[in-house]
Amino acid sequence: MGQALLRYDLPLLAGISAEDLDALNVRSHVVSLSAWETLFEQSDAACDVYFLISGALMAIHWTEDGREIIFTRFQIGDHFGELSALDGGSRSLAVVAREPSQVLVLEQASFLRMLDRLPLVRQRMFLSLTDRVRVLTRRHLQLVTQSVEQRVRSYLVSFAFERGLLHPGAVLTDMPTHSEIAATIGANREIVSRVLSHLRRRGLIRTGRRRIEIMHPGALAEAEI
Questions:
Q1: Residues in contact with 194: Cβ distance below 8 Å, sequence separation at least 6, in sequence order
Q2: What is the 3-state secondary structure (H, E, C) of the chain?
Q3: pLDDT the model gives residue 185
C-alpha cells in the first residue's frame, strides 16, 4: 500500500518511504469525478483527507442567499480536507470538479497516524496551515481596502506569479471564467468583465478564450489606478 501511495509523487509525502507508510497501515483509495460533479458538500460530515492527482477542483462556499464564493482552485498534488480530519467537524466548503478528475482519498485514521509518527509530514502540515491563514488574512485585507479593479489586477498577478509566468508576453492558459474570478475576489461577473476590458484597452493584457497574455506586468501590478 505504501508504494502505491508514493507513485503519485505527492509533495506532502516527499522523502517518506514505503516502509514508513506500511508500518502505519495507511489506507487509501482513488475516486473519479466527472466534470461539475461534487466530491463533498458544504457541512458534509466525512473526515477523510484528499489529494488531487489529475484534473481540476475548486473549493466553494454557498451563502444563505445562494451566492457562490470560490475560495481556491487546487493544483495537482494539493491536499485538502485536513481541518475536518483534525477536529472531526463538518466541512466548511464544498469541493467541485471543474473537469474530469481523480482524487486520492486518505482515511482519517491513517492521516492522524502519519501526523503522529512522521515528523516530516507533521511539519509540512503545520506550514501548510500557516500559509492558509496568511492567504485568508491577505484576502480579507483586499476585500476591505481595495477596489474591484485592484483585486482583479492582484488576482492576475498572483495567477501568473504562481505559474512562473509574470513576464512580458507570458500567456496564461486555462484561465478561470469571469464568474469564477468574480466569485474568488468578492465581486460580480459584470464588473470583472468591465475591468478586464479596461485593462485590455490600456494595453496591459490581451484576452482570448480562457487565456490572457500579460503585456506589461509591472504596470499591471501597480497598486494605484
A1: none
A2: CHHHHHCCCCHHHCCCCHHHHHHCCCCEEEEEECCCCEEECCCCCCCCEEEEEECCEEEEEECCCCCEEEEEEECCCCEECHHHHHHCCCCCCEEEECCCEEEEEECHHHHHHHHHHCHHHHHHHHHHHHHHHHHHHHHHHHHHHCCHHHHHHHHHHHHHHHCCCCCCCEEEECCCCHHHHHHHHCCCHHHHHHHHHHHHHCCCEEEECCEEEECCHHHHCCCCC
A3: 86
Predicted TM-score (pTM) of the model is 0.74
Q: Are 93 and 84 in contact (CB under 8 A)?
A: no
Contact 224, 164 (CB under 8 A): no
For 78-131, the pLDDT digits (tens) are: 999 999 999 999 998 999 999 999 999 999 999 999 999 999 999 999 999 999
Amino acid in the structure at residue 162:
E
Amino acid at 12: L
- Each residue's pLDDT tens digit, 126-172: 999 999 888 888 877 877 788 899 999 989 998 898 888 889 999 99
CA–CA separation, 224 vs 217, rounded Å? 14
Cell of 1: 500500500
pLDDT of residue 140: 79
Instruction: Provide the pLDDT for residue 35.
Output: 95
Pairing state between β 101-106 and 79-80: unpaired
